[in-house]
Design a protein that fits this description.
The protein contains 8 helices and 12 strands. It is of the alpha/beta class. It folds into 2 domains: 124 residues, Response regulator (Rossmann fold, 3-Layer(aba) Sandwich), CATH 3.40.50; 94 residues, Orthogonal Bundle (Arc Repressor Mutant, subunit A), CATH 1.10.10. Strands 2-1-3-4-5 form a 5-stranded parallel beta sheet, sandwiched between helices. A 4-stranded antiparallel beta sheet has the order 6-7-8-9, covered by helices on one side. Helix 6 crosses helix 7. The relative contact order is 0.10. The structure holds calcium ion. The site of calcium ion has 5 residues, from loops.
């Protein structure tokens, strides 16, 4: 499983322990010891998940979670709170601040990674290694393989990422700029026309088994991936 994880933790030893374990699990790790440092990372590029310590110098983790949820650009980032507080009231407060989950210190690295995987599976399934199948079209991230009714379909890496996004987010309409943010990464300066080029290539790759019909153009809006063939 990949994905960039922003670790916001002021205790150097804990930050190091978490970072080493996440990197070992295949994640890219961004480190911050305070909210201002975290903000700097988030301004540069959106992480795929934020692991946020409750007790930080200055602005607290709970306050920062609220801040992330309040801003349109950061509202959908999955958040896991790290807390030394096991009291019921504190757990409720962590979840009410917008966190997806919380992990109580001390925790085992294995538990932490399992929680991260669970949150990503729920919130960002395109970042997991789980194979996905829709209407006979199957995408296997581990083998980096796509098959239509069992027949291998060849496509480039961008078309593969695009298909992974669509197949894990069916029946929703995405504009070109949303697809750029989600598939190419936000703050990437690519023309919106580029999206159309890759959509065309993806359709060509899916034509052999008729699965190109799953990818529908929504006039004036963008594209939608259907769960069922028409
Ligand atoms: Ca702390």
């Amino acid at each position: 499983m990949s994905g960039a994880i922003l670790v916001v933790e002021d205790e150097a030893a804990i930050q190091e322990l978490i970072a080493v374990n996440l990197e070992h699990a295949g994640h890219r790790v961004l480190r911050a010891a305070s909210v201002p440092q975290a903000e700097e990372h988030v301004r540069a590029a959106l992480p795929d998940l934020v692991l946020l310590d409750w007790m930080l110098p200055g602005t607290s983790g709970v306050a920062y979670a609220r801040q992330l949820r309040a801003a349109e650009r950061t509202r959908d980032i999955p958040i896991i709170m790290l807390t030394a507080r096991a009291a019921e009231q504190e757990k409720i407060l962590a979840l009410e601040s917008g966190a997806d989950d919380y992990v109580t210190k001390p925790f085992s690295p294995r538990e932490l990674i399992a929680r991260i995987k669970a949150v990503l599976r729920r919130r960002a399934p395109q970042l997991t290694d789980d194979a996905v199948e829709v209407a006979g079209l199957r995408l296997d991230p581990t083998a980096h393989r796509v098959t239509g009714n069992g027949h291998p379909l060849e496509m480039g890496p961008t078309e593969f990422r695009l298909l992974h996004w669509f197949i894990t987010h069916p029946e929703r309409v995405y504009s070109r700029s949303q697809l750029l943010d989600q598939v190419w990464g936000d703050h990437v300066f690519v023309e919106e026309r580029t999206v159309d080029v890759h959509i065309r290539r993806l359709r060509q790759a899916l034509e052999a088994t008729g699965h190109d019909k799953l990818l529908v153009t929504v006039r004036g809006t963008g594209y939608r991936f259907c769960r069922e063939l028409p």
